[in-house]
Structure formats: C-alpha cells, structure tokens
Amino acid sequence: MINLLSNLKIAVPDKIYLKDPESSALGKRIIEHSIKLIDEIGFDSFTFKKLGSRIGSNESSIYRYFENKHKLLLYLTSWYWAWIEYQLVFATHSIADQSKRLEKAIEIVTREVTEDRSFTHINEIALNRIIVNENSKSYLTKEVDMENKDGYFVIYKRLVGRIREMIQGVNPNYKFPSSLASTIIEGALHQHFLKGHFKSITDCDETVTPYDFFKSATQKIISG
Question: Considering 5, 60, 144, 215, which has the largest number of Cβ atoms within 10 A of its Cβ?
C-alpha cells in the first residue's frame, strides 16, 4: 500500500504494449488523443490511421507502441482500473470500521468520475465514458484465456480482490464475496450506461446514483 500511495505513475502490465507510452512525448500524445478519438467516434470506428492523422504522425509510429487497437484498449482499461485502485486504497487505508471501509470502496468504484490533474495527458472523464461503453470489448474475445494467463487483467482482478476482502471483513460468513465484488464493479458500469441510454429500466437518475443502489443492495445482501 505504501508503494502504491507514494508513486503517482500508474503501472500497466508491460506485455500489453511494445513500448511504454509513458516513456516519451509521442507515447503520451498517443494515449491522450486515442482517448479523445475513441470517446468521439467509438472503439469500433477507431483506427490507428485516424489516430495518426489526429496527432500528425505516421500510422507506423503508433504500431511501435501497440501491436493493434485491441492492445491499446487493454492499456486504457488497465490504466483506468489501476487509477481507480489507487483512489480506493488512498481513500480507505485509514478507515478502521469495516462497514465504513466497504461503503467508501463502493463509492469509489460507482461514483461519477472527476478530472484528476495528476495526469495532464489523460482526460479521466472521457476515459470513464469509454470504460462504460467499451470495457467489455477488452475481454469478450477468443483470446481472453490466453491474455488472462499472460496477466493482462491482473489490475482489474486485484481491484475485485480488494473489495472481496472488505466484504469478508464485514461478514466473514458470506458465501459469495467474489461474485458480489465483481457485480458491484461491473454493475456500476451497467447502471451508468442505462442512466445515459435506457432511463426507463433503471432507477438511477439525477437524484439516485449507482452508489445509492449498490450501497443499499450490498448492505442488505451481506447482513442477511
């Protein structure tokens, strides 16, 4: 935890990229403008050719950092979950009460995202929209088992594990802590999506947040 809090550089599994985009000005521009472009046109319409035109660089220069656009999406999703994990650890490490720790963790993973000025080349609000809309495309692939074996999803799994441990801290006898932890994280993305696109099938709106829902649901589930 101390190492995580003392280093603001978000670490992404190095097998995802060919060259660390954080190591150069061009790499940071690739990340910055890929977020903006995917947010504008969606991941399916996004190409390295379009990104190259946006940043005024050859398409081949982008391929020096990422093998393909799927790997770039894996990088963005991994970066996002590591950023969320950083906030969660920072916000909960000094909370002694187990129930309060869990409530704060649920708040972190379900709340509306605000800009973090620690990372000037990354628009976290736009990245959050990408995660809400595109996150499942990072793992709903034929290669998911191999990529999981290679550690591509280690940050996301670690975040789920942290929330699982907090659930167990509140109720050690609850039988489904992993399922509940992953449901909170994935369910929050789904509720934000429904709130923006299918308002008639969610109770979340301008006054009821996904945090309100998952806090209430979790309390009832693990207290039973």
Answer: 215
